[in-house]
């Protein structure tokens, strides 16, 4: 199975997803939004508290560098083309994720500078050369030392509470909006994307009440099947479409270690896990095929019924794993079609 090209949202054309859903659905950037900076209550700028302290952004930023996943999408959707974007997993040959590349090319006429990550952490020299007035890295693992060094270049906002945890896509959008002095536009983006999800759910009433497990493919020699907790964004977005998490979720939490958002289920106990559908991502198509061919997994109800969806392409995995107001436009129309077909007994293993 192959996917259609990225579905950008923009002022000059509607996304294919929105056209398929409702002509009246407004797209991020279509309806008028004030670009005027909000007046700070203290007159000293916008303040954002985070894991490494507090960052003050003294004026509406224009030259924004983004590090890690997700943030670049939000910055672009809220009205600024980043001057620099750190290369992340899931990027194509161009170094950019497809939905982001399509969006900024159409909206701004060019892609940002691509910042290569170094073995020693952020590429400080490359970042400094871009002369940013704001650095955003909400979905990163920036250490305190890295944060301090970046702050010497420009006001920097790292993760808010813990490494590699940006919270919900809604909250992340609002945080980036605050940092950009664009709260109103951020709230608009959240509302429009939530409306898109709700519209898709409404089109598929068969999802309601069906149980789902989101997980990983097996690798050779595996004795556990990896599964995600309902805190994970993959699970949350699937629930927003109408599904319920498996009744075994409480058991998943009992076996999860520390702050992990995933755990493993012994193959010996897999048939005890209730699920109408299994969704997963795989490193390769071969891994997905190996998983469903496993003698134990093949007898598990959703696999036996053909009610499964595997994504083996990095772009698809990234879009659903780290959802944003841009990546959801790209992946959701295909995703809901795949879920609907899987419930009807037609499985999907989607390659790159």
UniProtKB/TrEMBL annotation:
Q: Where is the Fe/B12 periplasmic-binding domain?
A: 63-347
The principal location of this protein is other
* InterPro entries on file: ABC_transptr_periplasmic_BD, Bact_iron-sidero_bind, TAT_signal
Kindly state which keywords UniProt assigns to this record, in alphabetical order: Signal, Transport
Q: State the signal peptide span.
A: 1-36
- Tell me the Pfam families matching this sequence: Peripla_BP_2
Compartment(s) of residence:
Cell envelope
Q: Which PANTHER family match?
A: FERRIC ENTEROBACTIN-BINDING PERIPLASMIC PROTEIN FEPB, IRON III DICITRATE-BINDING PERIPLASMIC PROTEIN
The family classification in the record reads:
Belongs to the bacterial solute-binding protein 8 family.
Write down what this protein is called: ABC transporter substrate-binding protein
Q: Which organism is it from?
A: Leucobacter albus
């Amino acid at each position: 199975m192959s996917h259609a090209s990225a579905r950008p949202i923009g002022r000059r054309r509607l996304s294919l997803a929105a056209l398929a859903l409702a002509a009246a659905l407004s797209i991020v950037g279509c309806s008028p939004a004030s670009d005027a900076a909000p007046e700070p209550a203290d007159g000293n700028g916008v303040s954002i508290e985070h894991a490494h302290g507090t960052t003050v952004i003294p004026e509406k930023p224009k030259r924004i560098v983004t590090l890690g996943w997700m943030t670049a999408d939000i910055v672009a959707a809220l009205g600024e083309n980043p001057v620099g974007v750190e290369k992340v997993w899931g990027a194509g040959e161009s170094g950019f994720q497809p939905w982001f590349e399509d969006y900024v090319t159409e909206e701004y006429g060019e892609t940002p500078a691509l910042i290569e990550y170094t073995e020693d952490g952020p590429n400080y020299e490359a970042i400094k050369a871009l002369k940013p007035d704001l650095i955003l890295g909400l979905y990163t693992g920036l250490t305190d030392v890295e944060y301090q060094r970046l702050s010497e270049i420009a006001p920097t906002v790292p993760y808010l509470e813990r490494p590699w945890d940006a919270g919900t896509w809604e909250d992340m959008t609002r945080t980036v909006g605050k940092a950009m002095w664009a709260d109103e536009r951020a709230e608009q983006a959240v509302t429009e994307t939530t409306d898109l999800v709700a519209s898709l759910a409404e089109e598929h009433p068969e999802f309601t009440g069906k149980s789902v497990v989101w997980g990983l493919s097996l690798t050779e020699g595996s004795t556990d099947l990896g599964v995600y907790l309902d805190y994970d964004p993959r699970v949350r977005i699937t629930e927003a479409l109408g599904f319920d998490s498996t009744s075994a979720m409480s058991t998943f939490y009992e076996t999860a270690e520390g702050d992990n958002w995933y755990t493993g289920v012994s193959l010996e106990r897999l048939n005890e896990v209730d699920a109408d559908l299994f969704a997963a991502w795989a490193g390769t198509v071969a891994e997905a095929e190996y998983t469903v061919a496993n003698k134990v997994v093949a007898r598990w109800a959703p696999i036996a019924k053909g009610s499964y969806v595997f994504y083996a392409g990095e772009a698809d995995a990234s879009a659903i794993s780290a959802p944003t107001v841009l990546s959801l436009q790209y992946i959701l129309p295909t995703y809901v079609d795949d879920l609907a077909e899987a419930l009807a007994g037609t499985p999907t293993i989607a390659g790159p």
